[in-house]
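Quick illustration, no need to memorize.
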Amino acid sequence: MTLNEAVEGALSNLAKHKLRTALTMLGMVFGVGAVIAMLSIGAGAEKSALEAIDRLGVHNVIIRSSAVKPEDLPAVRKKSLGVSLRDAEAIQEAIPHVTGVLPRIEIKSYKVIAAGARTKAKVFGVSWRQPQSTSIPLSEGRFFEEDEEIWHAQVCVIGESVRRDLFGFSEALGKDVKVNDVWLQVIGVLEAQEGSSGKNGVLQDVPLTSSSRQIFVPITTAMRKFERDPLESPIDELQVEIAPAVSTSVAASMIRPLLDRLHAGAEDYELVVPETLLEQSRKTQRIFNIVMGSIAGISLLVGGIGIMNIMLASVLERTREIGLRRALGARQQDIRTQFMIESFSISFIGGAAGIIIGVVLAQIVAAFAGWPTVVSVWSIILSTGVSVSVGWASGIYPATRAAALDPIEALRYE
């Protein structure tokens, strides 16, 4: 019996029992689909987290103003100004291996308008050196320069969604945008980047707001020309750049006692170390992948047990057929090959259908849940390889049992 004949015979037998074959495949279909969907969701979450950490700058230390209860704020301000430029100067002078300290302010924007259009956006005052420290890609124009910061220039760089809301798809460079009561000239447009406004897990300290809803202005313009509550911290965030040869965790351990003295023990700031967040994120993602992969693997195992069960039932059902074929000269190897091909076909076809289901599920999650997903080639190869292996292994025992039947006893079987 040739291999082609064995394949034709196996597929013909599966086609005779379409419903049973389809139900047997379901375990593989949903198992493979679950593996691909879960790994895609995990990969998407990891990509989003890494992009957010990258925007902070992996080799930086972030000093962020922390929230203080309104009733406690006057008492705290008697001891501490909050995060301020004084902190930046002290860190620059006292902490070794610091290459720069970049301040950032978030402006409370209640009005963002231009040419009769209106939008909502987060407005930040940042240093002209910000693109050199963190990832701020531009699709059009340029970022503001040092002299524009020195002279408090009323210029801005806007996100893609802000540009679309205010100017449609027309030219935005050179146009004016009014933020609160200050007119700003658009000199650049940020490249669209995906993000989420939520915070979760180890990334609760990382701002994940999409850059398409952001507006950047020079830090001096933000400090001089926009109103700010006098009890608020003068600076919302300081980004401390550390030399590449030095661990940011070590630098953070030296910065903390200095800030404690400057703030007279007031807990009105917090330290964020992106490098540590990155390691935590990767560790959490590995655990997530293992747990999700194990859960999906159980589905594949259950599917494999289902295949074995059906194949054993098929052996009993076709006992007389097996006896007849043996009597006509079929070898044990021929019987074993046909049953193995049937088992392999069920798992292979089920795995192929599961790939489609998994990709569709990942797209549905991305579309309706707002959670980014990444369908990787290795997740498809892994899930399909496991499903085929499980199907193959599940067919070994039934095929061996069918081949071992005594021809005479098989012919007498009722």
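Residues 195-208 have pLDDT under 50 and may be disordered.
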